[in-house]
Amino acid sequence: MKRVGAVVLAAGLSSRMGGQNKLLADLNGRPVLAHVLAAIASSDVAHAVVVTGHDAWQVMDVIQEFDVSHIHNSEFSCGMAASIRTGIGAMRDDIEGALICLGDMPAVSSEALNLMISAFNAGAEDTICVPVFEARRGQPVLFARRYFSQLAGLTGDHGARGVLAANADAVRLVDMPDNGVLLDADTAEKLAGLRDFLS
């Protein structure tokens, strides 16, 4: 079994949320980010690193109940790439693949994470696993260690799309049981929809 880690991106400015930090927003009695970390804690993820940035102290209050590492991204205002670089750099040496998890996607279940990990274990050493629901690609994406150097070289606010595009032949699509891998809390309207999904 390959040891899989998770980089949880929790540093963003929540610019589309109207001034509220979406990761700290209440979702059925818990902060959005707590749902994400609870799913990771219940999964086969061997090591998780939460990347903080905006509202770091408040985010730390949420993550302290979980057995995770954390690292601060001082360049969080520069975009998502800086957080991916920071998190990948904090992965333990024994980790053979990393899930890039978004802190605003609380509907991604531990079952979904384990399906990704199982697919990664069944694949080649250079596998990139991407979740799919009804032909739509979602998040999180699982990258084998050989791509860590490419992830560490990302710039801007486009996430890991460039790494996926450059290594399309290595992508393994993993069917998901529900659309949780497509849902985020990016806006107040999306957050309201998640309350119904998770109720």
Structure description:
The protein has one domain (4-198): Spore Coat Polysaccharide Biosynthesis Protein SpsA, Chain A (Alpha-Beta Complex). The N and C termini lie far apart (34 Å). The model has no long low-confidence stretch (mean pLDDT 95). It has helices at residues 32-41, 56-63, 80-89, 110-122, 148-151, 161-166, 188-198, and strands at 4-10, 26-27, 30-31, 47-52, 69-72, 97-102, 128-133, 136-137, 141-144, 171-175. It has 199 residues and is of the alpha/beta class. It contains seven helices and ten strands. Strands 1, 4, 5, 6, 7, 8, 9 and 10 form an eight-stranded mixed β-sheet that branches. Strands 2-3 form a two-stranded antiparallel ribbon.
Secondary-structure map:
Blueprint: E1 4-10, E2 26-27, E3 30-31, H1 32-41, E4 47-52, H2 56-63, E5 69-72, H3 80-89, E6 97-102, H4 110-122, E7 128-133, E8 136-137, E9 141-144, H5 148-151, H6 161-166, E10 171-175, H7 188-198
Parallel strand pairs: 1-4, 1-6, 4-5, 7-10
Antiparallel strand pairs: 2-3, 6-9, 7-8, 7-9
